[in-house]
Specification:
The chain is mainly alpha-helical. Helices cover 74% and strands 0% of the residues.
Length: 207
């Protein structure tokens, strides 16, 4: 099965200023970009914010190729969203919405590209710990995120492999030849993951 990046860049070891930033500050940066996507109402400000985050990404040493790979899967969807918003609300609004979405994706990629996964999950556990009094389980929350981060590239890789196989047999326009094998592979993967977690006693509710 091929490995595939999906929306978020994988971790790139380094010693840049972004790598050495405290995790809470990176979380705040991502949160600020998420809030900015609601507060920024001018497409020029959205473009400036996106430019700043892209420059930070490049300064981290992760590289332009990883940045492009992180946003590439989103481009067809953004094209559709932008065209629809252009038709409904005009060019400036469409540009602002598309740029704000890209801002969030690049900010999240900056976090994952400069933070090892285990440190990121430790940070998630720390953030979720205050909610334990309300019945939340921080470790299970982090486990869910870890499984999600691992599963999405697997499913994307399964789809790419099935698509290539169908294309070789001249069935690339047959939805059944594309969807059914991916569905079976995904269900099998989910079942194996669940069995592996159960064998290790992970994900079971505490007594």
């Amino acid at each position: 099965m091929r490995g595939h990046g999906f929306l978020l860049a994988n971790y790139v070891p380094g010693t840049s200023l972004i790598h050495r930033m405290p995790l809470w500050l990176k979380f705040l940066l991502v949160l600020a970009c998420g809030m900015a996507s609601f507060l920024i109402v001018d497409w020029r400000l959205a473009a400036a914010a996106l430019l700043v985050v892209c420059v930070l990404f490049l300064l981290s040493g992760a590289g332009a190729v990883r940045l492009f790979r992180a946003v590439r899967p989103l481009l067809p969807i953004l094209l559709v969203i932008g065209a629809f918003q252009w038709w409904q609300l005009g060019g400036p609004v469409a540009a602002r919405i598309v740029l704000n979405i890209l801002l969030c994706v690049v900010a999240a990629s900056l976090l994952t590209a400069t933070t090892p996964l285990h440190r990121l999950l430790d940070g998630v556990v720390s953030l979720a710990r205050p909610f334990r009094r309300f019945g939340a389980d921080p470790e299970r929350f982090a486990l869910t995120i870890a499984i999600m981060l691992r599963s999405i590239p697997f499913i994307a890789g399964a789809f790419a492999d099935v698509r290539d196989s169908a294309r070789a047999r001249g069935l690339e326009r047959n939805p059944r030849a594309l969807v059914l094998p991916v569905f079976i592979t995904t269900v099998a993967y989910a079942r194996h993951t669940g069995e592996a977690l159960a064998a290790r006693g992970l994900g079971e509710p505490e007594d």
